[in-house]
Amino acid sequence: MKYAIFPPEELIEDARVTLPLSKSMSTRALILDTIASGHFNPEANPVAWCDDTKVMATALQQWDEAAEGTPLQFDLKASGAALRFLTAFFASRPGADVTLTGCERLCQRPMKPLVDALRQCGATIEYLAEDGYAPLRIKGQELTGGTVTIDATVSSQFISALLMIAPAMKSGLDLHFEGEPVSLPYITMTLGLMAMRGVEAEREPLRVEVASGRYTPCSQAPEGDWSAAAFWYEVSALSAGWLTMTNLKADSLQGDKAAARFFSCLGVETVESEEVEGALDLTPSPEVYGRLDLDLTDNPDVAPALAVTCSLIGVPFKFTGLHNLAMKECDRLGALAEEMNKLGRNVEKVRDFGLEWDGKSHPVRDMQVLSAHGDHRMAMALAPAAVYIPGIIIDGVETVSKSYPDYWEQLRGIGFKVIEVVVTEDGKVVRADAVATDTTDAAEGKEDDE
């Protein structure tokens, strides 16, 4: 599906967006609350309702309702978090007999470090196709645990998956990291959510130890999603507009609250709202860095919003610590370089660990269709470019359902026009509703003039 996006002449007065609940906290809460209560309880705590949580909830509910030993198969679609967390969960559930698979891209995302570590704990996991990748068949049992070593440089989700099931292991878990862990704040988040449920961990820079024990059910206050907030910072930076974000905590467990600090370098200040309780106001500032060099090892998910913003407002940048972005829903490094080049910015992928732009541009003679590359964060990062390029067209807009189903509606709510379109073979752009109803405009291939 393609959308043409047009910016407002100015953001509507009192522009306000309500952030969805944190997807990262929600996926962890689903696992932790199921372990704590011994069965799937969808009402244990409020969670985000998006593609990732839907596939997890479906799998947990069907497992909970099935007779012990019943073979089950779950299609996790594109959810890497669901694949990693459910692999560990089912491996630790005695009597489970589960096959996990998903879309083609999901079955290309690495699983070997997690599977190797689970096998060290005593898990029975079989690769059904290529070694190191889904689909997987898992036969659950009580795990031994003990001292385990894992490659920490690929995905923090592997570590979080192991930590969440650690209290159910006979000997607990003494987890040692090979290499510096990526996305460290996500591990900190996991440990914080575990602590809310009565399980404390001993932590060192390259080691975490969790004793055998039990979780205590808890009531967890919901938080808005700081990773999603980055795209509203982008809107504010590109439009120099005031914007209020509700349902967001400044003192969040989420590491991507660092977006506030990063975007303060790009002309956006964050202050507590005086008019809306518990909200944050984004206000424009003339303080814009002449260049931005960041190590985003801890915050890779904010890289798309930062890269698009810097490219359009003319701030050369170099972002490092992003090697795991090549293994997301798409190769985000290559995808960002490709799409920014379509907009005339000579952004380059720096081997497999970063992005760089030296400020150089090239002319763009034709409006090109931008691609989300099947990636929700790419779609959301590209959309605010409409502030600089009205009528920009993005293909793959439906991908936002993975984490932020209301994104397009909220973009409309602050004054943007978001219109479904079709691009004909001769390059004409027509409204999709015109094509569907076979109107004269569609028949003639008339371009939409909104």
Walkthrough of the structure:
Helix content is 31%, strand content 22%. With 450 residues, the protein is an alpha+beta fold. Mean pLDDT is 93; it is low at 439-450.
Question: Which keywords apply here?
Answer:
single chain, 450 residues, alpha+beta, 5-stranded mixed beta sheet, 4-stranded mixed beta sheet, 14 helices, 22% strand, globular
Largest sheet: 5 strands, mixed
Q: Strands across the major sheet, in which order? A: 18-19-1-20-21
Based on secondary structure, the structural category is alpha+beta
- How far the N terminus sits from the C terminus, by CA atoms, comes to 18 Å
Helix content range: 25-40%
Rounded mean pLDDT is 93
Low-confidence segments, given as residue ranges, are 439-450
- Overall geometry: globular
- How many strand units? 21
Explain the layout of strands and helices.
Elements: E1 2-6, E2 16-18, H1 23-37, H2 51-65, E3 71-75, H3 80-91, E4 97-101, H4 112-120, E5 124-127, E6 136-139, E7 146-151, H5 156-165, E8 173-178, H6 184-196, E9 201-204, E10 207-210, H7 226-239, E11 243-246, H8 259-264, E12 266-272, E13 280-288, E14 292-295, H9 303-313, E15 317-320, H10 332-342, E16 348-350, E17 354-357, E18 369-371, H11 376-382, E19 392-395, H12 407-413, E20 417-423, E21 429-431, H13 432-437, H14 440-444
Parallel strand pairs: 2-11, 3-4, 7-8, 14-15, 18-19
Antiparallel strand pairs: 1-19, 1-20, 4-6, 5-6, 8-10, 9-10, 11-13, 12-13, 15-17, 16-17, 20-21
Helix pairs in contact: 1-2, 1-3, 1-6, 2-3, 3-5, 4-5, 5-6, 7-9, 9-11
